[in-house]
Design brief:
The complex is a heterodimer of chains A (513) and B (232).
Chain A lengths: L1 H10 L1 H37 L13 H5 L3 H10 L1 H4 L17 E2 L22 E2 L2 H11 L9 H17 L9 H10 L2 E6 L4 H6 L3 E5 L3 E4 L2 E4 L5 E9 L5 E17 L11 E2 L2 H8 L6 E3 L9 H6 L5 E3 L3 H12 L8 H50 L1 H9 L4 H42 L6 E2 L7 E2 L3 H7 L4 H28 L2 H5 L2
Parallel strand pairs in A: 4-8, 10-11
Antiparallel strand pairs in A: 1-2, 3-8, 4-9, 5-6, 7-8, 12-13
Helix pairs in contact in A: 1-2, 1-15, 2-13, 2-15, 13-15, 13-17, 15-16, 15-17
Chain B lengths: L3 E13 L2 E14 L3 E5 L6 H8 L7 E6 L2 E2 H4 L1 H7 L1 E4 L11 H11 L8 H10 L16 H14 L4 E5 L7 H16 L4 E5 L3 H4 L4 E6 L4 E6 L6
Helix pairs in contact in B: 4-6, 5-6
The chains are: A alpha+beta (513), B alpha/beta (232).
Chain lengths: 513, 232
């Protein structure tokens, strides 16, 4: 058998070399495609994964997680089910903060705050961060009107920080009860099913919630759509005296309504679960965002509010009519356009900004995916075509007594050898090529804010460093397994093609050709 | 001891327009080693079909093909082709990118028969059919028609099969080369004890054989045209 393969390679070297050349090119592109995925991950890590923010993941979207009794269990569960949430990056962990939990979002502050009370706000997104970050935020974020930094630069940093937070955190909880209602009022969000809170529920802080349409829970790793009337368990984890985490409390929140964005294209409210503010306060013991409670519309005239130029806020109102009055006043007061409404105006900028960064990695990902898919498809096709191209040879060998099984084995082994030779050349070539291309690619695609300062205590700057990406770029074990599996699949396709040729084609017709 | 290849009650037909065209209907015929047979018939009468049936390359027939009383399908068609029959084609069917020697080596690699697989053995087998020297190293596709046919014959012989089936082996050869091929077949049958079954249009060549069968298209049978060997 091997002698025959050797003869075939030697004597039919024109076709063999053609196939080898084609395999090499295709496998090269496939290897490049795989490497680009790694580049994507590395770029992400470089840009936004360089974080020492370990974010609490007490997510209400996972019933299994709610059953965990301590951090170790929760961490293990998250690791095992990372795919349900997102890929946990190397070195990433989950930290459950002690009460009062530093509540963070990004990033506008209107007043000085004590450690552990830092109120940072995303205008919708809520995260838990370490106290040290809150400290830093406090020192950086509090400023008087006269020494306010360059607003545009500041905004960018805020957004970058948001991006880092977003990347390194698990969406937890939305508490923008009033914010959501504001969006509903503005028509950005519409209630599609059920109802919103009654005044009584707001007053009592009833265990009810309004969720975004399509919201579901993971139970036994199965995604289940929820319906009105379902209950969602939400757990709070605390550190005990021995610094051990434990589950302190689980609340059952009843779903009373669904909302969705009025314009599906627009990124508006990203909240998934809205509860009455009091419920939130009871659960977590602190307010959501920077909270201005029970202000009436006249509060907007306050000098303090103007001074800080906050561009994202959540207001908490006890009464719905106050909210309406507030919004009316907001709309009629142009100078406060920089207030709550400004947030919505800024959303697009934020998204653009984020896309600029994500785009770096995404551009690699999409191009490589296309090349990878094409290369894989052509490689398999080539393996299959060989059998059809050489079907007369198959017929001749059959006519002198070779069995279909041995012919399948012979052709499969030939393809396997060619693939191994192809990989042997393509794998190092792709690595060299991608390494050579990275500096240029990153130069073309790197965001203008590179490097950028972080608010983290341990990481001053985040830099997209091409040399470091090149240095870290290599094939992972999974990549090698993929190459092996791909080879196996291609060989199997070849075997199937030979099988078809030997069984289906009429030997007589081929021999008389 | 001579071996026998028998065809019993062969029926063969294929779709032809709305009906079926019958080639054979309950046709029976037998062959034995040590003899050289000819099969003649008009074009389209089913000569080649018959050869493919007895070579185990076409199984769409009724009836049975028996080797020493055993159905070839029981033997296993691959095994039957590998060890019991060798076919020689009008268009040679050599693997074009291999040279003469390698075409033989491939066949030797496949057969289970006890044969001389040494380099000298292959050289001798090629020499027996008149392929010597540099020609053994030339790609089969660059050899002349006559030379390719001789390599094909050598390949058929190299496997040690008892039954050599030849489908118009002289169809692409000139008269001189044809005579050489016929001489080889005679030698195979009479000296080496093989059974050579040759389909031909050429009645002059058919007359050289020990037994001559003809296809009776009217009755869809194979009938003997001459059963006594020609006088020396």
């Amino acid at each position: 058998m091997l002698k025959r393969i050797g003869l075939n390679f030697r004597r039919n070297c024109g076709w063999t070399l053609e196939r080898l050349g084609l395999f090499l090119v295709l496998l090269f592109f496939l290897a490049v495609s795989i490497l680009m995925r790694t580049v994507t991950a590395l770029v992400n890590e470089e840009l936004i994964g360089a974080s020492d923010l370990y974010v609490s993941v007490s997510t209400q979207t996972n019933n299994e997680l709610n059953k965990c009794e301590n951090l170790a269990e929760a961490e293990e569960h998250l690791r095992q089910n990372a795919a349900l949430f997102r890929t946990l990056a190397a070195g990433e962990g989950v930290i459950y903060a002690d009460r009062p939990i530093t509540f963070s979002g990004v990033l506008s502050v209107s007043k000085p705050c004590e450690p552990g009370e830092a109120s940072l706000l995303t205008g919708g997104r809520a995260y838990f961060v370490e106290k040290s970050v809150a400290e830093k935020c406090k020192s950086k974020l509090w400023y008087a009107a006269q020494d306010k930094p360059d607003e545009e630069a500041w905004k960018k940093q805020v957004w970058l920080e948001e991006m880092r937070l977003l990347t390194n955190s698990q969406m937890n909880f939305q508490c923008t009860c009033a914010g959501t209602q504001l969006e509903m009022y503005l028509g950005n969000v519409v209630l599609t099913e059920g109802r919103t809170f009654t005044q009584a529920e707001i007053d009592e802080g009833a265990p009810v919630c309004v969720v975004r349409k399509g919201y579901g829970i993971f139970e036994n790793n199965e995604f289940t759509q929820i319906s009105i009337g379902d209950t969602l368990p939400v757990s709070v984890y605390l550190l005990d005296e021995d610094q051990q985490t434990r589950k302190a409390e689980t609340r059952e929140l009843t779903v009373i309504g669904f909302y969705e964005n009025a314009d599906p294209e627009a990124i508006q409210l990203s909240a998934y679960l809205v509860v009455p503010e009091k419920q939130w306060l009871e659960l977590y013991g602190f307010g959501c965002g920077f909270l201005e409670q029970n202000r009436d519309a006249d509060y907007l005239d306050g000098e303090q509010f103007k001074q800080v130029g906050a561009n994202a806020m959540v207001f908490q109102f006890d009464r719905l009519d106050s909210l309406e009055a507030f919004i009316r006043r907001l709309e009629n007061t142009p100078e406060y356009g920089a207030g709550s409404l400004q947030y919505f105006a800024n959303v697009d900028d934020t998204v653009n900004m984020l896309s600029e960064f994500y785009g770096v990695a995404e551009s690699f990902r999409s191009v490589s995916a296309i090349f990878g898919l094409l290369a894989a498809a052509f490689a398999v096709t080539l393996a299959v075509l060989d059998a059809f191209y050489r079907r007369r040879e198959l017929a001749i060998l059959q006519s002198i007594g070779e069995s279909g099984g041995r012919l399948t084995l012979q052709f499969s082994l030939e393809t396997l050898l060619l693939l191994i030779l192809g990989w042997a050349a393509a794998i190092p070539a792709a690595l060299r090529a991608v390494r050579a291309a990275i500096p240029g690619l990153l130069r073309q695609t790197a965001p203008t804010e590179n490097p950028f300062a972080t608010l983290s205590e341990n990481i001053e700057m985040v830099t997209l460093d091409a040399d470091r990406v090149c240095e870290r770029l290599s094939y992972s074990r999974q990549d090698i397994i993929f190459f092996a599996l791909f080879t196996l699949v291609t060989v199997l396709f070849c075997a199937a093609a030979v099988h078809i040729c030997t069984r289906r084609f009429h030997v007589r017709t081929l021999l008389n050709h | 001891m001579s071996k026998k290849l028998e065809v019993r009650d062969l029926s063969y037909s294929y779709p032809d327009g709305e009906g079926r065209r019958v080639i054979y209907e309950d046709a029976s015929v037998g062959f034995e080693t040590g003899k050289f047979y000819a099969l003649t018939g008009d074009s389209g009468s089913g000569k080649t079909t018959f050869l493919y049936v007895i070579a185990g390359l076409d199984t769409n027939y009724g009836g049975s093909v028996l080797l020493d009383g055993r159905n070839i399908q029981e033997i296993g068609l691959s095994s039957y082709r590998r060890n019991c029959v060798s076919m020689i084609y009008q268009n040679f069917n050599l693997i074009p990118y291999l040279n003469a020697r390698e075409n033989l080596e491939i066949a030797l690699d496949i057969t289970d028969n006890e044969t001389d697989r040494t380099r000298d053995g292959v050289t001798r087998q090629l020499k027996d059919v008149g392929i010597t020297g540099k020609k053994t190293k030339l790609k089969s596709s660059v050899l002349s028609g006559g030379e390719q046919q001789r390599v094909a014959i050598a390949r058929a012989l190299a496997t040690g099969s008892d039954f050599i089936i030849a489908d118009e082996p002289t169809g692409n050869l000139d008269a001189h080369a044809s005579d050489q091929v016929i001489a080889i077949f005679k030698r195979l049958a009479h000296e080496d004890g093989k059974c050579v079954i040759m389909v031909t249009h050429n009645e002059r060549l058919a007359a050289e054989t020990d037994e001559w069968f003809e296809i009776d298209q009217e009755n869809h049978k194979i009938i003997p045209k001459r059963q006594t060997p020609p006088e020396a």
